Amino acid sequence: MQLARPAPRELDAESASWLGRLASAAAGEREAAERDLHGKLLRIALAEVRRRSSRTPVTGPELDDVAHQAAADAMLAILGKLAEFRGDSRFTTWAYKFVILEVSSKLGRHYWRNPPVALDTAQWERLPDRLGLDPHQHAEATGILAEVRHVIDTELTAHQRRIFIAIVVDGIPLDALAGKLNLQRNAIYKVIFDTRRKIRRALVAKDYLDEAAAGRR
Amino acid sequence: MNEQDMLERFLHTDPRDVGCGQATAVLHIYVDLVAAGQDAAGRYPGVAVHLAACGPCGDDFAGLLAAVTSDEPGA
Fold first, then answer.
1. Which of A69, A118, A175, B26 would disulfide-bridge A108, Cβ 3.0–4.6 Å?
2. What's the Cα-to-Cα distance from A59 to each of A52, A53, A65, A181, rounded to whole Å?
């Protein structure tokens, strides 16, 4: 089911101006608009890679390269999809989304150049910490961990298990895994979402969790 | 926060969560509403839930909002 979007509406003056210039039959006007838009996209991309810099191993000139590539790729995508702009946001907001998503995707792929954790490492010893459990403090935590492992081993397909272990156990960033496995971000998110529900259901069945607790959150 | 709360938080899922695809599809609309001070979460509750639950999509939202805000006069 798709979310309801507002009906296409009359464009605000600035958005109409962008569209008019970018689709102009006059090459000079069109090229000037493309230069202006690229300049904005590059400024946004440079700001975005810096905003994310503490969470990526990419640094220095390589980070600037990511920004330049993201701006260039976003520019191509925008020009190819101009006809799809419906006017349900400002044109620049719609355009900036392309460059933000490009930065996201490119930084995810760069993770594998020097990954702190390799795929399929399965660092199970990190699982208690991921779940906020300390089996040395509470005997019950040992039972919970065994139940979680049981769900992972018996209720997930090999593909789902690989994804859950990579994200939750090994802590690989979601976008990095999506890039590595050539999957959409949502495919990974849904595996994690569904597995959480399965684990919760199993822990409720074994009286480790309260059924009603989820509804109170 | 005790262990039980942390575990509940980790396992928490909200059935209203629309997922990454739908949240990304309307992200520009959502951000414009937020930037204009309108009730984006009221209009798109499933998107609000998703952006709070999904780290990467939440990061995209924060980045796009920062971009839009930086573009405004006087920023």
1. A175
2. 10, 7, 10, 24
pTM of the model: 0.89
- As a whole number, the mean pLDDT across chain A is 90
How many domains is chain B partitioned into structurally? 1
- Sign, CA dihedral A157-A158-A163-A166, equals positive
Domain ranges (residues) in chain A = 13-113, 124-216
- Surface of B (37-66) touching A: CB under 8 A: 44, 46-47, 54-57, 59-60, 62-64, 66
A215 reaches B (C-beta below 8 A)? no
B-proximal residues of A, 40-69, CB under 8 Å: 40, 44, 47-48, 51-52
Closest CA to A168 of A130, A136, A198, A217: A130
Task: Let me know if residue B20 belongs to a domain.
Answer: yes
Top mean-pLDDT range of A124-128, A169-173, B28-32: B28-32
Domain A13-113: CATH class, spelled out: mainly alpha
Query: Does residue B32 fall inside a structural domain?
Result: yes
CATH 1.10.10 fits A124-216, yes or no: yes
